[in-house]
Amino acid sequence: MKLTEISSDVSEWFDGSGPLADIVISSRIRLARNLAGYKFLSRCSVAEKAEILEKLKDVLMSLELGDKVSYISVDKARTLDRHFLVERHLISHHHAFGKGPRGVVIAQREFFTAMINEEDHLRLQVLKGGLQLSQCAANINKIDDMIEQKLEYAFSPRFGYLTACPTNLGTGIRVSVMLHLPALKMTGQIEKFFNAARAMNLAVRGLFGEGTEATGDFYQLSNQTALGVSEPEVVSRFEGAVIPEIVEYEKAARDQLLSKEADVLDDKISRAMALLKNAHLISSQEALLLLSHLRLGVNMREHMGASTPAIEGLQALGEAGGSRRLSIATINRLFMLTLPAHLQLNYGKALDPTHRDALRAQIIRSALNQGS
Length: 372
Known about the structure:
Blueprint: E1 24-33, H1 46-61, E2 69-73, H2 79-87, H3 93-96, E3 103-107, E4 112-116, E5 122-129, H4 133-148, E6 155-156, E7 160-161, E8 173-180, H5 182-186, H6 190-199, E9 202-205, E10 218-223, H7 231-260, H8 262-278, H9 284-304, H10 309-319, H11 328-337, H12 340-347, H13 353-370
Antiparallel strand pairs: 1-5, 1-8, 2-3, 3-4, 4-5, 6-7, 8-10, 9-10
Helix pairs in contact: 2-12, 7-8, 8-9, 8-10, 9-10, 9-11
């Protein structure tokens, strides 16, 4: 796979579709697995890591997934390509910049990836747009079963699947949902979300997972333990109780903005529109925050029928020149394609920060002024 084949558009799971996609960006399920008869990676020699890599690569590339799969040798990839794979949520930062032989298998539509020699020998992940954890679980369990027919995993009757990190011991499952929570942030109620997560023993991370801060009002919520609870229980809890509760918090905050703090809402949206339509230099972090405010306005128009001067301005912006209305899909696309590695890969060469900021501003100006 040439990364330029996928860098000019968004992943299927990030296109703004799926249940509750106004607030729930995506659903992800990851499984951690290790091969029987091999040491954990931290104790493996380079030769042993290479042997594990080849064994898993051969099996993964032979799977019938109904989609073309490609392999990328992460340890041999350019630094820019590794950053791109992290931005694309296809591999973790740890995997991108770890040591030793390692690779990733990617389905063409990017709904499935398999990291080889990350923290464990194998980390499978399935992604879908919106709140679709049950579908993710069904897909990943099918793939996991296909692999287990060809390989023996390290498994204990007492502890379940054996993993490098104790928090993954048992089922090895990590359920993760990416949420867009700008109204909770604007109304000063984001602590309600953090408190709810802590009370339910859940981890909150930023846009790019572990070790990252929330940017653009995006938060990743995931389970912290996999021992003593079944995979269906974890998925059911998230899909039936945890995420709906957080979604209701955000909806209530949006109602509050509309009914009691319309001036605050309008100010955020108007400032975002003005800066994004006119700026000639804009950083990645600033773009994510300002696009987040536009996304909130469009969502409130589409899902709540909200109407304020700034929200009406969004509609007029999208209809300028007879083009289609500014949509969530357009904004999501700008979120992804203006990230640093995406910009440089699509431009065809590495750029210094100032040139990246100029190119990012140009892309956003063009998209918003044309409403496409």
